[in-house]
Amino acid sequence: MTIIAFQGQPGAYSDLACRNAYPGAQTLPCETFEGAMEAVREGRADLAMLPPENSIAGRVSDMHALLPESGLSIIGEKFLRIEHCLLAPPGATIEGIKRIHSHPVALGQVRKLIAELGATAVVEYDTAGSAEIVEKLNNPEDAAVASSLAGELHHLQILRRNVEDFEHNTTRFYVMAREPLHLAPDTPDLMTTFVFNVRNVPAALYKAMGGFATNGVNMTKLESYMLNGSFTATQFLAEVDGHPDQPAMRHAFEELAFFSTEIKILGTYPADPYRLKQRRKNG
């Protein structure tokens, strides 16, 4: 049986992403992202399902810091539509809710619901953890915002589904493994994720990126973040369409190497059908 590590408690959205992507697999909850990565490195798990970004909250900064030195490879991506549920003990009514517990990011996504009910937002460390807390409180005035799976695991009723303020609330996950995928360069709909540091010379980033433009390589992501807490050392995470061994991509990486001090490919993997559908939708 495939074992998939994730950060959070059973019933967390990462747990739900594992179950949706790999039905029948066993999920392994871990306290931290690093703990989930370590479980894969040590062989206690086959894969890790870890979120680099959310369509509302943006990037997950801890993930960006951990990825380059994780020792793991990205072998896939999965997208999960985040559908928040208002969960409460059996017998509670939505009119009687006075406190709503959840992770701060989730609470920020249900402001309309909190205002509508005139409830107090109570910050907890995890969405699934908030469901566990509400189960233990067993008070009809306390509710949690979490997944339907968390409600099921903690014996809570769903007072209202889809309570998030924005319908596009979606989290992207990397599927990570000990070994990279070995894919043919002509495999369609591939993506490559990599990190690099540019040389400390004028216009280095502009020149480094020019190779992708002149070789017709589509770049879908470029993000910068501090390296080791330094204000002068910046690392970039980028994602492009294609395989590193395709001629156009190879030429682009050659130009990138000329203006960079380090390049590390984190994985080449198939684009998720959700991404391909969004591309067709947006033309």
From TrEMBL:
<keyword id="KW-0057">Aromatic amino acid biosynthesis</keyword>
<feature type="domain" description="Prephenate dehydratase">
    <location>
        <begin position="3"/>
        <end position="178"/>
    </location>
</feature>
<dbReference type="InterPro" id="IPR008242">
    <property type="entry name" value="Chor_mutase/pphenate_deHydtase"/>
</dbReference>
<dbReference type="InterPro" id="IPR002912">
    <property type="entry name" value="ACT_dom"/>
</dbReference>
<dbReference type="GO" id="GO:0009094">
    <property type="term" value="P:L-phenylalanine biosynthetic process"/>
</dbReference>
<keyword id="KW-0456">Lyase</keyword>
<dbReference type="Pfam" id="PF00800">
    <property type="entry name" value="PDT"/>
</dbReference>
<keyword id="KW-0584">Phenylalanine biosynthesis</keyword>
<comment type="pathway">
    <text>Amino-acid biosynthesis; L-phenylalanine biosynthesis; phenylpyruvate from prephenate: step 1/1.</text>
</comment>
<dbReference type="InterPro" id="IPR001086">
    <property type="entry name" value="Preph_deHydtase"/>
</dbReference>
<feature type="domain" description="ACT">
    <location>
        <begin position="193"/>
        <end position="270"/>
    </location>
</feature>
<protein>
    <recommendedName>
        <fullName>prephenate dehydratase</fullName>
        <ecNumber>4.2.1.51</ecNumber>
    </recommendedName>
</protein>
<dbReference type="GO" id="GO:0004664">
    <property type="term" value="F:prephenate dehydratase activity"/>
</dbReference>
<feature type="site" description="Essential for prephenate dehydratase activity">
    <location>
        <position position="171"/>
    </location>
</feature>
<dbReference type="GO" id="GO:0005737">
    <property type="term" value="C:cytoplasm"/>
</dbReference>
<keyword id="KW-0028">Amino-acid biosynthesis</keyword>
<dbReference type="InterPro" id="IPR045865">
    <property type="entry name" value="ACT-like_dom_sf"/>
</dbReference>
